[in-house]
Amino acid sequence: MNFQGLSKNCSFLSVRFRINGGISVHSYFSSGFRTIFGFLLLAVLFGYAASCASAPARSPAEVSAHVSAEADARVEPSAAPASPASPAGPASPAGPSAPATSLNPAAPESSEPASGLPEVQFREEIFWLPEETGIMSREGRLTARIVYEYTSDGIPVSETEYSGETLPVKKTVYSTPDASTPDASTQVLEQTDSAGKTVSRTLREYANGNLVKETVTLPNGTVKTVERYEWDKAGRKILWTVTAQSGDSVSTVYEYTDGVLSRMLVKDASGTPVKRFERTISGGLIVREDEFDRSNRLTGSLVFVYDGTLPVREDRVSPSGALLSSTTCAYDDNGNRTTITYLDRRGRVVETRHTSWLRFLRLVPVEPLNSVTGENR
Predict the structure, then answer these.
(1) What ranges do the domains of the chain cover?
(2) Could you tell me if residue 123 is left (phi over 0), alpha (psi between -120 and 50 degrees) or otherwise beta?
(3) How far apart are CA 42 and CA 49, in angstroms?
(4) DSSP 315-336
């Protein structure tokens, strides 16, 4: 076969050449190839149509899930975001969506309840209340006795005063705080004499756990005294006002330095200062209290002595510094004051009070620790 010429034109796969005697094969090659190609194209189209007709139809949600799965498969592990996944979309027909989880495998599971609030923990706390106080004379004779009664939770029930060992002279009965009022905010104290006759009735009113008003009423309904209290945000008393049956009133203003009571100013009904107490503080402890009259003259002082942080002696001195009287205190191993002794200026015993104490337990909430700082929230 001698090829005398070879050329290309723009026809689809068309080639012109001549064989020996000059017979042209262009028409045969191009027409035959086109016919075969046409049949092949038709076969492919019919096969695709048949496969589409036999395949089950997909919902838009399935198509979206399929596309998302293919996209996730192409994500490199190091490229996965550390933030939580977006909220799950609508549930598919096959069932509800799985709960959204963090894509960070190192993220710890929450130890808090499903509600999102931390579980409240409690611990036992010991507290002490006076059980009985015996009052002894200079000669050591029991002159009076005070007995305290409580519920098993340490709520006061009654307080009975005896003359000597057994003769009751006065009893104060505490009502259970009224749970029908906000914060169980009222309490009644009924005071009776030795014959059981009511002597007075005291109504105490509380707000946020602080006593805000105390009204003492006589059996005939006459109001004997009204005491009002005000407190700051730290729960410290800042004002105490006493109004007598006559209408006269006296107020005491309390001031603090570094959280310690440092000054008390007593005023009459018109607001005029009639007395002032100035305290000297050292190391967070009150070491001296000076009393001044309305003319700003020093009238007396109290000097305090401590054993650690417990006051063990209190001396009352004149403006000139002369000792007028003393009070000494003794404590048990739990820090409860067990003995108070009153002495005259010569150091002789005037009266001694001995107190025994009862131990109670209560549950107090424990604040959860901050996971970062380790401190209470």
Answers:
(1) 7-50
(2) beta
(3) 11
(4) EEE-TT--EEEEEEEEE-TTS-
pLDDT of residue 32: 52
* Phi/psi at 53 (5° precision): -70, -35
Q: Quick one: pLDDT at residue 46?
A: 58
pLDDT digits (tens, 9 = 90+) for 155-186: 999 999 999 888 899 999 998 765 555 555 89
Strand-pairing partners, residue 126, are: 361
Q: Is the dihedral of CA 107, 109, 112, 113 positive or negative?
A: positive
In sequence order, what are the residues at sequence separation of 6 or more whose Cβ sits closer than 8 angstroms to the Cβ of residue 83? 102, 103, 104
Task: Please state, in angstroms and rounded to a whole number, the distance separating the CA atoms of residues 321 and 29.
Answer: 138
- Cα dist from 100 to 63, 85, 96, 115, 129, whole Å: 21, 6, 12, 17, 55
Whether the CB-CB separation of 339 and 312 falls below 8 Å is answered with no
Q: Which residues touch 109 (CB under 8 Å, ≥6 apart)?
A: none
Q: How far is CA 350 from the centre of its chain?
A: 48
65: closest CA among 95, 41, 39, 37? 95
| pLDDT tens-digit readout, 224-270 | 999 999 999 999 999 999 999 999 999 999 999 999 999 999 999 99
Tell me the C-alpha distance between 355 and 128, whole Å. 12
Per-residue pLDDT, averaged over 40-52, amounts to 56
Q: For 338-360, b where at least 16 C-beta lie within 10 A, e where not — what string? A: eebbebeeeeeeeebbebebeeb
pLDDT at 31 over 80: no
Amino acid in position 367? E
- Find the DSSP H helices in 55-169: 60-73
pLDDT (tens digit per residue) in 141-158 = 999 999 999 999 999 999
Structure token pair of residue 145: 């006795």
Q: Is 227 left (phi over 0), alpha (psi -120 to 50) or beta?
A: beta
